[in-house]
Amino acid sequence: MDAKRAAVHSSKYFLITTLFAVVGLGFVAAGAYLSQPVLETETPQAMLSALIPGLVLAVVGLAVYRFGKAWALYKTLTAANEEALADTFDTQRVKSDIVSVVDDRLSDMQTELQSANRELRKLREDEPYDFSNSSTSASRTESSGRTDSESTAESTGGSESVASETEFEPAEPSTDSGAEK
C-alpha cells in the first residue's frame, strides 16, 4: 500500500475514533453533572442513590467510546484490505501475467524444436550407414582409398541413388480401425 492510501485510512480511523470519543465524553460529562447532588448528601444510602444515574451515564460513555474505536478499526482495516486485494487480484493484470508466462514458455518450446530439427537435418546430411553389407563396416576402405559406401555408390550409379535408397520415409498411418473383421 502506498503512503497516500495509508494516510487516507489512518485519517478515517482518527476521525471516527475522535467522533466516538467526543460522544463518549459527552455521556461521561452528563453523568458527572447528574452526580453533583452526591456532594450535598450526608448518608451513604442517599449518596449511592444519587450516584447511580451519573455512574450509569459514565459507563455508557466509556462503552460508546470503546465500541466506536473497535468499529473504526474494523471499517478502516476492511477498506484498506479490500483495496489491497483489488490491486492484487486485478483480473486484467493476472490475465496478462498468465499470457506472458505461457508466451515465454511457447517461445522456449519453439526454440527447442528448431534446435532439434537442425540436429536431425545435420544427422541426415551425415554419411548414412550402409545396411546392405552387414559383414563389413562402412568405414573400411578398399585398396583405392575409397570407402565401401563410395564404391557401392559408383557401382549403383552415383551417390544420389544410394542416399535416396537409405533415406527414411515414414509409413502412412493406417486408417483401418478394425471394422472390416
Question: How would you describe this protein?
Answer:
- The structure is a single chain.
- By secondary structure, this protein is mainly α.
- Among the domains are: 3-89; 91-125.
- The protein has helices at residues 3-34, 44-88, 91-125, 148-156, 159-166.
- α1 (3-34) packs antiparallel against α2 and α4 packs across α5 (159-166).
- The longest helix has 45 residues, at 44-88.
- The protein is rod-shaped and about 130 Å long.
- Residues 136-144 and 151-168 have low confidence and may be disordered.
List segments where confidence is low: pLDDT < 50 over at least 5 consecutive residues: 136-144, 151-168
> What share of the residues does DSSP label as strand, in percent?
under 5%
Overall structural class, as computed from helix and strand content, comes to mainly alpha
The total beta strand count reads: 0
State the distance separating the first and last CA atoms.
Answer: 71 Å
* Largest sheet data: none
Global morphology = rod-shaped
Helix content: over 70%
What's this entry about, in short?
With 181 residues, this protein is mostly helical. It is built from 5 helices and no strands.
Topology readout:
Layout: H1 3-34, H2 44-88, H3 91-125, H4 148-156, H5 159-166
Key descriptive features of the protein:
mainly alpha; single chain; 181 residues; 0% strand
